[in-house]
Amino acid sequence: MSDTLLHSLREQVLDESQPLAGLLRKCLMLGAETGSSALRNWARYELNGYGDDVDVPSYRRLSSPAIRMDTISGNMHVKGQTIHRLQLPVKAQEVVSEWIYLRQPIEELETLTGEKSLSFTNAGLAYAQTIWNGQLEMFQQIMNMYFDLPSSAIVGVLGQIRTQLVDVIADLMADTPLTDLPRKDQVDAAVGQRIGTQYLMTINTAHGPTAIGARAEATVHSFSIDDAIKLLDTVRAASDGVRNEVLRTELLDALEDLRTEAQKDELDTVAVHRKTGRLRAAATRIGVPTITAAVGGAVEAFTSLAMTNTFG
């Protein structure tokens, strides 16, 4: 079966119409047959996504994209104003990472390429908005801040993954006849040389990489519980524009439920995860980008605190 897999990979890897997910699943099988945990781990992470306790490969790291914001100054409303991270107030820059990490499964990344651009936020950017608003004068306010990433950046990442897969298969084909099974050390060497991924546990410190996507939580942030609670105020302010009272009430109930949990003397991590999930679900049902962004920042902050054992 292994020689068939290797032959199949060689035939399909250069076919741009072949989905990467299918090729990676064959790599899973090839890794199992050869005993190469390096190949299996890489393929599995690409297929399932990279958890928050795993360093992602360098090709999934992107420079912080442009920041857009919606502002009010007196009677003037400005939407989609573009700024760079370095244009944030100094204190706000400290909580917004220079990098974003793409942790999503490969198939999710592929679906994102159909969009012209991707808009998202995280706890750092949401907190930066709170800091900046605290420095503005009366009748001035930042209503929303979010990253704007062109989908071409995702296309570039997918291209790198395919190229590295080609390199690995080419190395194996150069050293192994089609009818033979590559040795474990050959496969491990090819993966180590071409991909060079080290799956290490990350350490929670300030100003580290930021993840995006449906499962995105910041790997590292230095937020306090008070900071996270302030982000709930941002969600409440954003909810003023929700016209559906039933959905708005559901959102605010979930928000207050989480706030009450966070203010307890002894915090329950499991309860916090459950209540952040309820808040995110309420935002999803509303379907308003500003609400989704604000809730995403708050949920990420609470999740980050839970990961660093701030909660009991």
Describe the fold and architecture.
The protein is built from twelve helices and seven strands. The protein is α+β, with helices and mostly antiparallel strands. Among the domains are: 97 residues, no CATH class; 85 residues. Strands 3-2-6-5 form a four-stranded antiparallel sheet. A three-stranded mixed sheet has the order 1-4-7, with no helix packed on it. β2 and β3 form a beta hairpin. About 8% of the residues have low confidence.
Features:
single chain; 312 residues; alpha+beta; 4-stranded antiparallel beta sheet; 3-stranded mixed beta sheet; 12 helices; 53% helix
- Gross morphology: elongated
The overall pLDDT average reads 81
| Largest beta-sheet characterization | 4 strands, antiparallel
- Catalogue the unreliable spans: 197-221
- DSSP helix fraction: 40-55%
Order of helices and strands: HHHEEEHEHEHEHHEHHHH
Please identify the structural class as seen in this structure.
Answer: alpha+beta
Number of separate helices: 12
Distance between the termini: 50 Å
Strand content is 5-15%
The strand order across the widest sheet is 3-2-6-5
Number of beta strands: 7
The gyration radius over C-alpha positions equals: 22 Å
